[in-house]
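User: Could you go from structure to sequence for me? I need the amino acid at each position, not a summary. C-alpha cells:
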C-alpha cells in the first residue's frame, strides 16, 4: 500500500508540474504534504519533517551552488569563456572543428550552468557556421552534448552536488569518475552522432546572435583556463593527496579543510575576482554586481532542490523508503541500473533533469545507505538517467529547436536522440567503471 501511495504522489507531481504548470517548488511542498498525510505521519511531525528536509538539503549546498554560479557568471561576462573557445578552435583546426567544439563545451560546461553555457556558446557556433560553411548541427550537437553531460554528471552543478550530499559521496572522487565516464559519452553523442545529421540542414535565426567581447579586451588564455578549471584542479589534487598521505598524516586536518567543496569554491571565487576582475581593471563594485546577478539566476534552482529535500525527508521519516528499498533490493536488477532507470522514467515524465535526479535519489537512498553500492557511482548513474530522452516537456528541447530553427520532428531526431545517447552511454560507462574500482 505504501509503495502505491508513493507512485500516486509521483504521478501527482508530474500532473502538477506538466499539466497545471505549477511552480516546481510549490508542487514539491504540496506533494510532500499529501504523501505525509496518506502515509499516516502525525501532522506536527509532518511539519517538522518538511522543515528538516528544507534545512538539511540546502545546508550543505547553498555555498557550493551560489559560489559556482558566481564563478560561472564571471567566466562568461569577462570573456574568459570566449577566450577558451577561440583557443580550442585554433588548436583543433578547421577539419576537426566539431572535436574542438566538443572539448570547448566540456571545459566551459564545468563552471557554467547549462542554460548560461547554451546561450553563451550560440553566437560562437553561428559565427563558425558562417565562416566555415558548416552544417549548424555538425557544430552545435558536439558542444551541446558536452554541456549536457557536465550538467548531469559533474559537481558543482546543482543535481550532482545535491546527490553527492545525499549519498555522502566524495565530491572529488565523483568528479574524477564523472570525467572518466563523460569522455566516451560526449564522443559518441557529439562528433560521431553529429555525422548522422548531415541530411538536416537548418537555417539558424540571426535574431539570437549575441555581441562578443572584443579580442583586445579578453583575459589571457592562461588566466581563462586556470580560473575556469581551478575547482576541478583543487578537488582532484586534494583527493589524490588525501589518498596518498593517509588519515594519520600531519597535514590531514588542513587537507580536509581545503578539500571541502565549499572551501574549494570559495578559493576559486577569490582567485577569479582577481584574475578576471580586478586585474583586468574592473572595480570591486562591478565584480560584486556580477555576483549579485548570478545569485538571482540560481534562486529558483535552490528552491527546487529544497522542495525535493522535503519529499525525500517525508519518505524517510514515514519508513516507506526502507520498504521501497527492500522491494527494490529483491528485484533482479543491479542497484546502479535501478537508480538510472528510476531517474530516466521521471525525466521522461517531468522533463527536468534536476527534479528527476533528486526524486530518484530520495527513493534509492536506503540502498546506498545500506552499503550495497558505491555512492560515487550512484551519483553518476542517476545523473545519466536524468538526461534520458529530452522531449516536448523540457525547456532545453525548445531552446535547441528555436535557436537552430528546427521542426519538432528534426529536434527529436537530433536533440532528443543526442540526450538518449548521453544517458545510455553514461550508464554503460558507470557499469564498466564499477567492475574496476
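Assistant: Here is the amino acid at each position, in order:
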Amino acid at each position: 500500500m505504501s509503495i502505491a501511495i508513493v507512485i500516486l504522489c509521483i504521478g501527482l507531481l508530474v500532473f502538477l508540474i506538466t499539466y497545471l504548470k505549477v511552480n516546481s517548488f510549490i508542487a514539491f511542498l504540496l506533494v510532500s504534504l499529501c504523501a505525509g498525510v496518506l502515509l499516516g505521519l502525525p501532522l506536527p511531525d509532518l511539519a517538522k519533517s518538511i522543515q528538516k528536509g528544507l534545512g538539511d538539503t540546502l545546508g550543505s549546498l547553498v555555498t557550493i551552488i551560489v559560489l559556482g554560479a558566481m564563478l560561472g557568471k564571471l567566466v562568461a561576462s569577462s570573456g574568459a569563456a570566449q577566450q577558451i573557445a577561440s583557443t580550442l578552435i585554433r588548436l583543433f583546426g578547421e577539419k576537426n572543428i566539431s572535436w574542438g567544439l566538443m572539448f570547448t563545451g566540456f571545459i566551459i560546461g564545468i563552471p557554467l550552468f547549462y542554460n548560461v553555457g547554451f546561450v553563451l556558446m550560440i553566437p560562437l557556433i553561428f559565427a563558425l557556421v558562417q565562416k566555415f560553411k558548416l552544417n549548424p548541427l555538425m557544430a552545435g550537437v558536439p558542444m551541446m552534448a558536452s554541456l549536457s553531460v557536465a550538467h548531469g554528471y559533474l559537481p558543482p552543478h546543482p543535481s550532482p552536488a545535491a546527490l553527492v550530499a545525499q549519498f555522502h559521496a566524495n565530491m572529488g572522487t565523483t568528479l574524477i569518475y564523472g570525467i572518466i565516464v563523460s569522455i566516451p559519452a560526449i564522443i559518441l553523442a557529439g562528433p560521431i552522432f553529429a555525422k548522422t545529421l548531415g541530411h538536416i540542414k537548418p537555417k539558424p535565426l540571426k535574431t539570437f546572435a549575441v555581441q562578443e567581447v572584443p579580442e583586445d579586451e579578453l583575459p589571457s588564455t592562461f588566466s581563462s583556463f586556470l580560473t575556469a578549471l581551478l575547482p576541478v584542479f583543487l578537488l582532484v589534487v586534494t583527493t589524490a593527496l588525501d589518498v596518498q598521505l593517509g588519515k594519520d598524516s600531519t597535514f590531514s586536518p588542513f587537507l580536509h579543510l581545503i578539500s571541502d567543496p565549499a572551501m574549494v569554491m570559495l578559493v576559486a571565487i577569490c582567485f577569479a575576482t582577481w584574475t578576471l576582475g580586478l586585474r583586468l581593471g574592473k572595480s570591486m563594485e562591478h565584480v560584486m554586481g556580477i555576483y549579485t546577478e548570478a545569485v538571482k539566476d540560481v534562486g529558483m534552482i535552490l528552491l527546487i532542490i529544497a522542495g525535493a529535500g522535503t519529499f525525500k525527508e517525508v519518505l524517510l521519516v514515514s519508513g516507506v523508503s526502507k520498504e521501497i528499498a527492500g522491494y527494490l533490493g529483491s528485484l533482479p536488477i543491479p542497484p546502479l541500473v535501478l537508480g538510472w532507470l528510476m531517474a530516466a522514467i521521471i525525466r521522461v515524465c517531468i522533463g527536468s533533469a534536476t527534479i528527476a535526479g533528486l526524486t530518484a535519489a530520495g527513493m534509492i537512498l536506503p540502498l546506498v545507505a545500506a552499503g550495497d553500492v558505491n555512492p560515487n557511482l550512484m551519483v553518476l548513474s542517476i545523473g545519466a538517467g536524468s538526461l534520458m530522452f529530452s522531449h516536448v516537456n523540457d525547456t532545453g528541447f525548445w531552446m535547441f529547436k528555436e535557436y537552430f530553427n528546427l521542426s519538432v520532428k528534426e529536434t527529436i531526431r537530433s536533440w532528443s536522440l543526442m540526450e538518449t545517447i548521453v544517458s545510455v552511454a553514461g550508464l554503460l560507462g558507470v557499469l564498466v567503471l564499477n567492475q574496476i574500482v
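One structural detail worth keeping in mind: The chain has a mean pLDDT of 87.
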